[in-house]
Each structure stands twice: as C-alpha cells, then as structure tokens.
## 1
Amino acid sequence: MSVTEYIRKSQIWRSIFRHPAPYDRRNRAVVILTNFFLHLHPVSAKKGGIALSYTWCMGGITFFLFLVETLTGVLLMFYYRPTLEWAFTDIRALRDVNTLGIMREIHRWGAHAMVITVWLHMYRVFLTGSYKPPREFNWVIGVLLLVLTLLLSFTGYLLPWDQLAIWAITVGSNMARATPFLGHEGPGFQLLNVGGFDLITNASDARFLLLGARTVGEETLNRFYILHCVAIPIVVSGLIAVHFWRVRKDGGISQPL
Amino acid sequence: MNPHPDLTVGVIHGLGWLYLLLFFLNLGWTVRSYKVDGQYESLMGIKHAPKALVWAAYSALLLIVTLVHFAVESDASNFKLRLPEFIKNPADAVIANPISFFCLSIVIYAAIILLRKWWVKPTVSWVLFNLSVLFITVSMTDYDFRKIVGKPDNVPIVGMLFLVGFTTWLYFSKANENDRRIAEGLPVREKELSDQVLVWPDLVYTEMICMILITALLIVWGVALQAPLEEPASAVKTPNPSKAPWYFLGLQEMLVYFDPWMAGVVLPSVILVGLMAIPYIDFNTKGNGYYTFNERKFAISTFLFGFMPLWTGMIVLGTFIRGPNWNMFGLYEYWDAHKLEVLNNVNLSDYFWLSFLELPLPKPDPQAGFFSQAGSILLREWTGILVILFYLFAIPPLLAVTIFKKFFVKMGFVRFMVLANLFLFMASLPLKMVLRWVFNLKYIVSIPEWVFNI
C-alpha cells in the first residue's frame, strides 16, 4: 500500500472527502455534488457553453477578484486605522516598512481589474443575448452588482487619505448636493420647507448623508471605511449568491435554444 | 516652451523590453503565417515567396530596434529613435479639440461595425494590434505622454483598451462566422458544440488555471508598479485638475455639457435604469445564447454606441486629455495651467430675446409673489421649455408612426415609450455636445432662480 493510498483510506481523509478520488466517470459526478465549493457547478454542461472563447471567463474572474480583495482587504485591516491621525501614515508604512505591504498594491490593482472585468462580463452577456428570457432578472441583479462594485471601489478610494483620495471623493460626491429635491443645490430643494424653514440644507441633504459632514472629513473617512469593509461587501455577497443561484435555476450557462 | 526633462536610460531600456516582447509575438506570428498564409504568386519578380517572409523581415527589424534600445548606456538625450516633433503638433490639435475627438471616436465606432468583415481578418487585426502597440512605444519617448499614460492608476485603462479591442475582435469574428452560417441555413457554431461534458475536469480545470494566472498577474503587477500615494490630504490645497476616480470620468465629462443635477444624478440614474430595462424592452427573441450581429443589428449597435464612444471614449478623454482647468490637452502637450480657452456660451433664451427680438430679457421681480415670478420666468424661457417638451413628448409618438413603426407595433405602448425615452436620454449627450460646438449653446432652459438648467 503506497503512502497516498494509505492517506486516502484513513478515517480522517474519508471524513473530509466522502467519496473516492474523481478518476472515473461516476466519481467525477459525485465530487461536484458532494463538495460544498464545487456544488455551485452543475455535474455536466454543454461543451459550447463552457468554452473559454464563449464565456471569456470574465464573471468567474470577477468573483475570484472579489475573493482576492476580501483576503487582501482583511490583511490590510490589521494595519490600518481609519482616523485622520493614522490613516495616511498607516498606508505609508505599508509602502515603506511592512513586509506584507505589497498587499496594498494587489488590493488596488485587483480593484481596478475588477471594475474592468465586471464591464467585460456584462459586455459578453449582452453580446451573447444571455439577458433574454428566462434570464432577465439575473441581468438586473448583475447591474446592481456592477453598481456595488463601483461603489466598493469608490469608497475604498478615500481610505489612503492622500490628496488623490480626498479630492477624487470631493469631486465625486459633489454631485450629490445637486440631487433634485434632496440636495441643497439641486432643483426643487426650496419646495421642501416647513413654515419658511428649508428642510434641505448643506447639513441635511443627500451629500451630508453620504459624507457625514459638510465636507470630506473624519466622519466621511469613518463612514466610507464601514461602507467599504462591512456594509457593501455584505450586500455584494448576498447578491453574488443570488446571482449564482439564478444562473443555475434559469437554465445554466446560456446556449442556443 | 519646453519644460521637459528628456528621455532617461531607464525609460529606453524599458521600451527595449516592450519591443522584445513585440518581437517574440511577431516571431510566433511568422511561424503561424508560414503554416497558414500560403505564398505570394508573384512578388517583385520572386515567384512563390511565402507571405511569412514579410513577417520575418518585420520581426528582424523589431529585434534590431530592441538591440538599439538596449545598447544605450548613457547620453539618452541624443537617442534618435523617438517620435518626430512634426507629428506631435498635428496629433495634439486633433486630440485636444472636443469636436475632432468626438468625431474621431464616432468614426472608429462606425468603422468597427461597417468594416466588421474586414478588420477581424487575422492579418488585418494583427497589423492593427501591432500599430497600437507601436503607437504606445513610440509615444512613450515623449515626456508628457509618458507622464500621463505611465501614471500607475492610468495603466489599467490602457490595459482595458486592449481588452475591449480584443473582446470586440473576438465577438465580431464569432458573429461573422455565425451570420454566414445563418445565411446559408446552417446551425450556429455554438449549437454544434451541444454535447454534454463533465464539469470535472472540463470546467474546474479552466477555472483553476484562470485563478493561477490572475494571481500571478496581480503579483507581477504589484511588484512592478507601486500603488500611488500622494501628499497627505489637505482640504485647502485643491489640485488642478481635480478628478473623480477614473471609472467615473465619463460622468465628470458630462458636467461640461450639463449641470450637476443632470450629469451627476439624473443621467447616471437613467443609465442604470436603462441597463436594467434592457431585457424587458428587447423583444427580439433571436440571438439568445450565441454570437450574432445580423440578427440583432439595432440592439448591438446601440449598446456598442453607449459602451464605446460614450463610456470608454469619455473615460479616455477624462483621464488622458482633460488637464488643468478641465481644458483639453494633446497627448504630447505640456499641462500648462495657464492655457486659455475662450468660453463664450449663450443660453437659448438669450438667443431668442436679445438676438432675435432684440428686446431685454424679462426679469422676474424678486419682491413679487411666486406666481408673478414664475410667469416672467416662463415668458423668458418659453422657447427652451417648448423644445424640451417637444423632445420628450412629441418625438416618441413621431418615432412610433415613422421610422420605429415596426417597433411600436411589436412592443406595445408602454415598452415603446420606455425605449424611446431611454433612447432620447442617451442621445441628449451627443445632441448637447453638437449644440455647444455649433451654436455655443449653454442651456436650453436656464432658470438659475430654481437651480434648474438643462
């Protein structure tokens, strides 16, 4: 009995993998059905549907990048304090001092890459007409995931707390004050007043809600930190689950009818 | 004025690596050409020369260029292989002008669709790829180009352009093939591959290899390029230009033509709602699950118009071309904060009252009641309001009874109106651009009293 065979037959191994190695047809089906991570897949698929030149693998890469961002993001959180006093110096220390500082590079480039792969995934799904019935609703969820990906990237942009960060967020969030009715420089905000007092001011409008202050400051840093590390990832994880579930329930990877 | 530091040895060696990469790619292409492309019947007296000879010669030239770059050890300022100065000014003039920039992007968009049979041919697309790489390597010898394109945060955009080009090429080559098959009454290519295969190993191995490649790419990228970190944040030092993150620069660009409430809130919302509405307004049941162009001409052309000139094109514009004071700068132009651009934009109401009737603008009396103010505002702006009402409410029915009659019949009232309005919102940006360029038009409706400008 060889060593690998001994390990494969041990009680510990068999308690983890409840089936023999996927060497034959039956076990190749079983491995997909009984493994938690693999069971996202169907057991079999049409050859044309999983061809790389058809799918471009962009959705899968996007998901993988999300996992990379989660992993590197958690590691970065150990080194980063979202306060005016520390945010910038912590990031600079990642560059100059810490051994694992390259996590920041991987996190940032991975984020840019994720924005691009989301677009290309959407591009592919459009070009193959895969949003057509019965997959209409999954396309809608996909659009939501696209928005959330952009918001994840946008909220993360502020965290290094350098000039690039606060001015990009200032420019980006200035739009919110022009929101019709809900921004203090938007059309129709004067209509929302009680007894001559404006309800919408620079301390109560949509931009204030986003920033937590009248200008991008410490409250904004805290708000964006929570959004970036907790709130949006939770929503994204939920929607990814629904997105994958619906891929399976709506008939798998699209193929000619 | 030439405030530029010149080429450095490091940059020249870096370009040498790029040329070396291009050399190896073309070496591979030479082999492919030898196996696939066949021979020239008669080439300057030489009969039956393999077409691969041309590629071999080109590859050899690339190798020589590579060696020339690597041979530089000092005195980089005398390096001769660089973009000639006489090209820079005309190229800048085309790029730094909104009209020619937008026309150029529309021409490229139209060419991608109209010449789709031609440009996806292997040799043509390979030549295009080579030209685009050479454009970048040669341009890199220019300081200003290097400074903006080589910025770490901008590198992914260059990568994205190549990816969009590649995926579009992939799409059209597959769509052309399927369109040919459909015309001949054959099943599409995807249909032929309809036998079932097991996901282990056929899919999970692909996924595994993808994950490894992406991980390797990110590590190499992370080692090669440091993530940007500028000076500590300061609320009093406003950088010029102040730019949003790169993926929002298309939206920031719309601020040139629309007020923030339109460019920053209404139009982005319409884009999102429009994207979500696509499956519910596209009544065409063909083209589901395979690549085709001919069966979905309208849908694909519209989407490509939104994705290429409007979205990608405006990101390129916002990232590489918009400089200090949001002025446009050529790719080889120094970002001079004192560059002057004359802006003399006029509202439609000014045109009507001042130029046409030669009367003063009606002025609302700030002391008067709301209705009196509203009356004089409406009187002042009635032309613009009429134009907007016509655009939003009269054009959809007009489309329904004329060029989109078939659509209207098939889609029904509600779905057609949604489609028509989304279409009009999408068209509003290029329309506003053209009005700006031709008539210097600022606002069609301008009611600063209510912060309401269109």
## 2
Amino acid sequence: MNFEKIDVKGKMCPIPVALTKRKLDSMKSGEMLEVVGEGDLEFENIQRWVINNAHEVVKVDKSGNEFSLLVKKH
Amino acid sequence: MTYRLTKVVPVHGCSCKLPQYQLGELLDQAGMTGIFGPEVLSGPWENSSVIKIADNMAVLNTLDFFTPMVDEPEIQGRIAGSNVTSDIYTLGVTKIVSVLTIMAFPENMPPEIAVGMLKGLSDFCREIDAPIVGGHTIRNPWPIIGGAATGISNPEKIVYTKGAKQGDLLFLTKPIGIAPAMAAYRMQKDEEGKDFLETIPTDVVESAIKGAITGMVTSNKPVAEAIQQVPVHAATDVTGFGLKGHASNMAMLSKVDIVIDKLWVINGTPQLAETFGYPLLSGESKETAGGILIAVAKGNADSLQSELDKRKVGYCEVGYVKEGPGTVTVLKDAKVIEN
C-alpha cells in the first residue's frame, strides 16, 4: 500500500491544511498519509478538516509542540 | 525590509480567540460560574457586561483585542475599532461614552506602524462618536490592537443574545467568509501561498478580499439604531466562534433550536474556503468584526428590514427559530448566496 508523508512545520496558516488537502486529493481511497507539523492550532485545524471530510485519523502522536497525524484517505 | 503585521503572527484576528469549548473548561475550572448579583443584568456568554446603576440607567463594558488581520496599520486600527464597538452595538445600544485602547508591540516593530494602528482606531471611533479617553500599551512578541468600550442605555432597551423565540426569523447584517478571504490576502504575498491561488481567477480573489475588508471596517452602529426601532427578541454579533458558534450561544441561552437554511457569504469565499480547507459552508469558519445576527418575530420582520434599509445596512434572512433544547443545525443543502 502506498504510504505518503508531508512535513508542514513552519508553514503559515492555512498552508498546512491546504497541503494536507492537496496531498489527500492526489491519493487513492484507503491509502495512508502521515502529516508532521507543529503548533496546537495547526494540530486542531488539520485534525478537524480531516474528520469533517470523512477521512480517518488512524494514529495521533503529540509531543510538546510537535505532532504527527496518520490519516487514512476516505 | 518592510515590516508585515500579518507575517509576524501565526494566527490572525479573531482566529486567535480561544476555542469556545476550551474557554468553557477554563472558566469551569476557575470556578467562574457566571452567577452574579442582581445589579448584573447580563448573563454568561453575553457580548458585553450590563450593570444596572439606576432604574433608568445601565452601563455596558466590553473588551476586545487581537492579532493583525492586515499589513496596513491604519486599516488594522479601523478593524480593531469596529470589532470592539460592535460588542456594545450588538445589544442595541447606540451610545458609547468611552473607549480605552489596548496595544502591544514587539521591540523590532517600527514606531510608525504603532502610530498607524492607533490613528486608524482613533479615526474610526471619532467617526462613530465614540471618544477615546485613555489606554494601555505593552511590549510583547506579537503585535496586538484593540480596546475596551463603555456604553450606556436604559436597561429596558437592551437586547441580549438570550431571548430568541420559537417562530422568529433570523437576519444577518454582514456576509460571512472573512477567514478564507483574508487567508487569500496573506497567501497572495507568500511565495508558497501564491501556488494555491493559481487555479482561482484573480478577480475572484480580489473581490473576496475587498468584500472582507469593507465588511470589517463597517460599523454596526446603524444596526443598533435599527434594532432600537423594532421589538427584536435577541441579537449577537458573529465573530470568532463563527456563525454556527454564535447562533449556538443564542440557541442555548434562549432554550430554542436554530436552523440556518441560507449561507450569505462574501463573493468568492466558497471557492477559497474549499481550496484552503475552511469550514465556511458548515458555518464554522471564524469571522472578525462580523455582522449582527438578529432574531425577530415574523410579524416584525418587515419593520426591521425597513429600518435597516433606511440606514443602508445590507442584510439577509438566514434562518429561523423553532422549539427545541438549544441546538443549531446548518442545513446541508443550505442555499449559498454570494454577495
């Protein structure tokens, strides 16, 4: 199975969500994407967008300011 | 190098507001129950505090400040002025007797930027006859501008967020979509951001940005004047919690359900929201210096519209109130009206 990864650290809002969306749009249903980023607001924004758009958050790792979200495309 | 206000902060305008649920948790943990003495007429989650000081006189206080939305200091000052005074006008109160300014500026920010923000705020307040009488300024890593406003009114004339009734119609006085429009504003100036705007016609982007800025620097004072002429049931401005969040406050406090069946949006913002992943069409996108959501009985809706028309205030009927425990539904097939 295809496994993609993007790093959105240091990107201005709303680029982290827009990059996540763009990457998922290019993937097939069931494929996995890991989004690595930083900041509580970006963490919440990306997670909310993923859930609102019926994708699945498979795993969340959060350590201090940094996070990793593993997303399964709808 | 030019100092850009929006570049030095990670969150912009009312997006820097703490989420509603998080604020609620903090207040609970701090034991701030929102139970006040009899002289306090405003309940929790109200836009301004309302203190009765005599039978025919109440004093309203509100505080509002945030990080920059735009790079032009004077426009930023005007947005801040519009936002803080709106919290008084939302209660249908037209008389603001004083404004105190609040400003924070980073050590490396050129002084002319601070002067511009203060000038914009001061000009805006002068134009709406709300005198600035003092303020407070600090050094801070993020630039911040805003103020504290005080209004006065006969207590009988005040309109609260609480009070919407079954059968009411809901009117909104500014279109929503500030967050995606202003994201486009920032993205236009960013090398990586420009890439996301490639597929969107330039005139759509420009129109959205212009619509958003025009809306933010437009005072809600004429809305307060119109509200005074009509027996409306409830009102709240639409800012950092988004249309759905503020409607939710109204529904919860009024113990009714609210249905949003029309989304009145700034021209071009649905396309921008889709590109950037903003929840605009579910009514959850954050607004800054937004319009006022008014609940009015069907029988008085024509009078309200007429009073708004007289004052050249734009508006749209966006939903209705029905019996229920206090929930808000934004219909999935809500009609999207671009302004």
